[in-house]
Amino acid sequence: MNKEKLRVGVIGVGYLGRFHAMKYAAMDDVQLVGVVDTDPLRAQTVAEECSTKAFADHQPLLEQVDAVSIVVPTVYHHTVAMTCLENGVDILLEKPMTTTLEEADDLIALADRKNLMLQVGHLERFNPAVLAMQPLLNNPLFIEAHRLTTFKNRGTDVDVILDLMIHDIDIILSIINSPIQDIHTVGAPVITQLTDIANARIVFKNGCTANITVSRISMENVRRMRIFQPGKYLAVDFGKKEVMAIKLKQGAQSGIPLPDVSRHGFSDQDVLEMEIREFVNNIRHRLKPTVSGREGRRALAVALSVIGQIRENQEQFRHLLGQEGNFGFINEP
């Protein structure tokens, strides 16, 4: 692709989509052609904020752009993404990429057939802490991850596994080069009808075990991971965008082993901007994304396995939810 401005659009400008639009609008080598939303007022507000055009439907926009970010509710990912690919448009599709593996396979096959970009928005892969930990990794043996957030109304169209846990699943799969041997899970709905708190213990065939806990009903926001490996462990703080590496060294005077701590990271980097900038660069040079459709599908497959197992387990305590199967959930039908 030449050096002319890349023509882009954003489909879905709710909370996260608005930030996509703002990042594109600020780029010198990109023309934000327009934004789309089913809420006309929201589309117009974001369009004015980003000095672009508002669309009520994405089809007219696709005739004017080279690429789009798709930031609509997950249940619409497959339909919208298929339309974009059929129109020859490269896509950055927010996570989780689809609701089923069959839908994910549809998108991958179509993108391959038309030689189009299918990048999946696993934002944490661009977190400076994740980038900083890569050269520090050495045969991880045990991984412990906690991703806890206070309750927010957005994101409740999917359960906490697809909302939050899939981030850690994707990161762990990217650093452990081994098939999964077994998964053990537990989870429960608390204030919505979907699972709000969950734990998954993933055992890999090479002996590594990952223990992941997620909750969207916490009193505080926590995004941390600890990686234990021979001679060293890494404490990764996604919020602070920092990695603390700890190992033991001999004390200069006493000879007693003392902790040797080093810190790594780049806290001033904008994670979303890095992801979108990579998307633009990938389009221009036809490069493989850090998180392609296949990586997105891989994380989705594990997440869906976790969800299926939790649902089976929940049937065993369905009686605790009351005769009608709920106890005052938010978003009851």
TrEMBL record:
Pfam families: GFO_IDH_MocA, GFO_IDH_MocA_C3. It comes from Candidatus Electrothrix aarhusensis. GO terms for molecular function: nucleotide binding. This is Putative dehydrogenase. Residues 158-227 form the GFO/IDH/MocA-like oxidoreductase domain. Signal peptide: none annotated. Residues 6-122 form the Gfo/Idh/MocA-like oxidoreductase N-terminal domain. InterPro entries: Gfo/Idh/MocA-like_OxRdtase_N (IPR000683), Gfo/Idh/MocA_Oxidoreductases (IPR051450), GFO_IDH_MocA-like_dom (IPR055170), NAD(P)-bd_dom_sf (IPR036291).
